[in-house]
Amino acid sequence: MNVVELIRKKRDGEALTEAEFRFLISGYVDGHVPEYQMSAFLMACFFRGMTKEEILTFTKLMLFSGEVVDLSEIPGIKVDKHSTGGVGDKVSLLLAPIVAACGVPVPMISGRGLGHTGGTLDKLESIPGFRTNLSVAEYKKVINDIGLVMIGQTKEIAPADKKMYALRDVTATVECIPLIAGSIMSKKLAEGIDALVLDVKTGRGAFMQTEEKAIELAQTLVEIGNGFGKQTIGFVTDMNQPLGSAIGNWLEVVESVECLRRNRGNNDESKDLMDVTLLLSGAMVFLGKKAKSIHEGIERCREVVSSKKAYQKFLQLVHMQGGDASSIENLEKYPIPVLSLDVKTSEKGFVGAIDSLELGLAGIALGAGRQRIDDTIDPKAGIVLRKKVGDRVEPGEILAILYTDRDQEASAARDRISKAFKIVSNKPTPQPLIKYIVDREGVKAWR
Ligand code: URA
User: Fold this and answer.
1) Is 407 a catalytic residue?
2) Using a 6 Å cutoff on CB, does residue 111 contact ligand 1?
């Protein structure tokens, strides 16, 4: 088989066979297919898409590029969640310990920052010493000992996604339903789960900017999950403003810890973060058969947050994966960025919209994300929002604060962040944060 021929075939809109996909994916993993040819193939997929049958074949081959972990000796129904990616989306950091504290084991394989969105691995690795590259044996030991584990794709588990994910990040080939489906579901099906909850983001800061596209992606993911025998529920949730207040790796760890430790998120700028976290956690607790409904699951999750059991679980996780738990207990001891700049408004009115795509891109410029595969991330860099959609503002008030060591980027980023806030004269009507639930029965508005 000839790689150029396969690129041409996809470029011209033809469907590939299983043997052709296998040739490309295994060749890419073992190094016979170079990055430049895979980049061209991914761009052809971006423009031409895949048939339903191709998506299933692609996902299966991505999955079997590595090992499928067997967790059958671990008692309980193992449940995970995955988000399609958003700005300020630190839900996994909160949800995994919450669900584990409710008695449902959570094996989680996540990714790094992708496009303008942040990644769970980069956030976890901002905790001094935290290891996300565990071997399969270590992975099994951690979940067995404490009921949760959080790692990245490895040479053994989902290796095709490990390589392709990093390549898509820097070749503008992320926003493509077949590639997202193969990427997410290969990781999730490899980790040893029995059931899965998906959070498909929609809006300006999401890869799927329209609700129609988000529903299509949710249906594709739910169909693949159920097709592989894993009970799967998807939600479509809003990403028209960042989730919570922090954007940037360590800043997001801090916000998550404060939600777990100090019950932040009740009636402040972290409320949307906590609402989405409790919904997805509640659905996981329901799938894990520790609650009779999603709503009952949400109540159970609230209890383990209030009792600090979820916070204790998070500390246990940090400790078990080599992290310095004292950095979590003493958040103020973390290194401080060289620069912090206030972003102020000169207008009076209400925040009508916050462009999360722009904030995600500003975060990357400040050092919180990558522009090239080999870029290193500055864990301290990022943005903290002081105002969210619907808040009243007066001239001179602070909208956000940016943090960076890159003084040459700071003033352009400040302008970009300022322009991302749209100030309007009338208080905007609140939009639903959680829009749809997608399961075997179809798509329904969430209530
Ligand atoms: N999350 C993933 O794991 N993969 C994608 O392609 C997009 C979001």
Assistant:
1) no
2) yes
Cα separation, 87 vs 213, whole angstroms: 18
Atom 1 (ligand 1) nearest CA:
84
Asked about 168 being catalytic, the answer comes back as: yes
Q: Which of 236-240, 264-268, 435-439 has the lowest mean pLDDT?
A: 264-268
The Cα–Cα gap between 106 and 196 comes to 10
More confident residue, 135 or 375: 135
Query: Mind spelling out the 3-state secondary structure of 364-430?
Result: HHHCCCCCCCCCCCCCCCEEEECCCCCCEECCCCEEEEEEECCHHHHHHHHHHHHHHEEEECCCCCC
Q: Per-residue pLDDT tens for 166-215? A: 999 889 999 999 999 999 999 999 999 999 999 999 998 898 999 999 99
- The amino acid present at 217, given as its one-letter code, is L
**Count of alpha carbons within 13 Å of 216, Cβ hemisphere only?**
13
Confidence at 262, pLDDT banded by 50, 70, 90? confident
Atom of ligand 1 lying closest to residue 182 CA: 6
CA 5 to chain CA mean position, Å: 35
Determine the Cα–Cα distance for residues 255 and 264; give it in Å rounded to an integer. 8
List 10, 78, 81, 82, catalytic entry: 82
Q: Has 374 been annotated as catalytic? A: no
Q: Which of 437, 442, 409 is nearest to 200 (CA)?
A: 437
Bridge-based pairing state of the strands 392-393 and 442-445: unpaired
Catalytic residue flag (residue 186): no
CA 403 to chain centre: 22
Ligand 1 near 84 CB (within 6 A): yes
Residue range 275-298: mean pLDDT, rounded: 98
92 lines ligand 1 (CB under 6 A): no
pTM to 2 decimal places? 0.94
Residue 382: is its pLDDT beyond 90?
A: yes
- Residue of 165, 176, 187, 189 to test ligand 1 pocket, by largest number of atoms within 8 Å of CB: 165
- Is residue 119 in contact with ligand 1, taking CB distance under 6 Å? no
Expressed in angstroms and rounded, the spacing between residue 161 Cα and the centre of ligand 1 is: 9
CB 85, CB 201: distance < 8 Å? yes
Q: Which domains does the chain have, with CATH numbers?
A: 3-49 (1.20.970.10), 79-330+434-445 (3.40.1030.10), 336-424 (3.90.1170.30)
Reduce the DSSP state of residue 165 to 3 states and report it: helix
**Active-site annotation holds for 183:** yes
